Amino acid sequence: MDLKESCGSQGSQETSSLRPTSWQAFAHASTLHGLRYVFPYGQPSVRRLLWAAALLACLGLLALESAERLAYFLSYPHVTSVDAVVSSSLVFPAVTICNLNAYRFSRLTRNDLYHAGELMALVDVHLKIPQPHLAEPDVLASLQEKANFTKYKPTPFSMKEFIERVGHDLKEMILRQQSPPPAALPAAEGGGRRR
């Protein structure tokens, strides 16, 4: 024990008042902007009061706006607005079909099903068909045939090769309409070919 502390001298009181409180240490280490100025090391000042007022005002506005947005959300607002635009002609493609299947089932092999079947939700962890009642009968028959892994020896699997082979090919998905050659076009008004 220090002699100065036991005597209650002025030096020991000065060092204890300069030691930061836990709030000051927390505020100084906090990333909340302005909090370190509300609880600074040292004596209170006007600057500290202004920072406290600004911080409380911002927190109040945050609480007010959050409460207003929460009340609006809980009122279940809905807006249904439909604008119908009728067009006399459509630019190609007139019909767009989006294929949601990433892979072609017809190109799947038994090895693909063994390695990536669970990824595609075609088989479960035990390599069994999880919900056979949801599949169409012809697809189910093909899947059951491919999912028969008794006495099956899997071969090495490459995901890149799998995607290139089983994924959709753009050339097969786009149908191009070619215009007929000029000779095949119907004759203009006035009938027939010129001789």
TrEMBL record:
Q: InterPro entries of this UniProt entry?
A: ENaC
GO molecular-function terms, A-Z:
ligand-gated sodium channel activity
Membrane topology recorded in Swiss-Prot or TrEMBL: Multi-pass membrane protein
Kindly list the GO CC terms recorded for this protein. plasma membrane
Q: Which domain of life is it from?
A: Eukaryota
Keywords assigned by UniProt, alphabetized? Ion channel, Ion transport, Membrane, Sodium, Sodium channel, Sodium transport, Transmembrane, Transmembrane helix, Transport
Membrane found in the keyword field: yes
Query: Does this UniProt record's set of keywords contain Membrane?
Result: yes
List localization entries. Membrane
Q: What is this protein called?
A: Uncharacterized protein
